[in-house]
Specification:
With 196 residues, this protein is mostly beta strands. The chain is 12% helix and 43% strand. It has 3 helices and 12 strands, in the order E-E-E-E-E-H-E-E-E-E-E-E-H-E-H. A hairpin with a 2-residue loop joins strand 1 and strand 2. The longest helix is centred in the C-terminal third of the chain and has 11 residues. The two termini are 33 Å apart. The model has no long low-confidence stretch (mean pLDDT 93).
Length: 196
Amino acid sequence: MFTGIIEDLGTVSEVKKDGGNLHLTISSKITPELKIDQSVSHNGICLTVVDISGSDYTVTAIKETIDKTNIGDLKKGDLVNLERAMKLGARLDGHMVQGHVDQIGTCESISEEDGSWFFTFNYDSTLGNVTIEKGSITVNGVSLTVVNSNKNTFSVAIIPYTYEHTNFKAFEIGTKINLEFDVIGKYIQRLYDLRV
């Protein structure tokens, strides 16, 4: 379980394919505090640390994760939003984030307005996921509030701190992003779909 508050912006130092799996080695300032078998969110994807070497650590993504997220697009030098699992009893500064990506979205527009940025994303609404105005959404692991909600698009406002300390600064029109929709909304949608 995570909060969507990014701790560090890691850098991909190696990408290695192994059968259907993908091994990612990440360089990060949080590496010395990690341990083998620990869960870390990578652009919103919960992955397990399998190796640690100096300031680098390695995680493995299986085919299911590769198929349902943007992790297969990562290459050496890319920036990755990182967050360790939340601690019980600590402040919950973002919202409840599971680290299970629901689907991929695409950056549709970016605009700068008075020192902040507005990003609009589109997604396939036929998969049953929804956003609501002022509701929570996780974009590449970042906990955000929906500013503008439509059937298959939504917008978020990004303050300068978030822009500088996450990989939002690397987004362009067409960038694929990982989306985790609000868990309460997902349960309500599921119940609605099962109504008799």
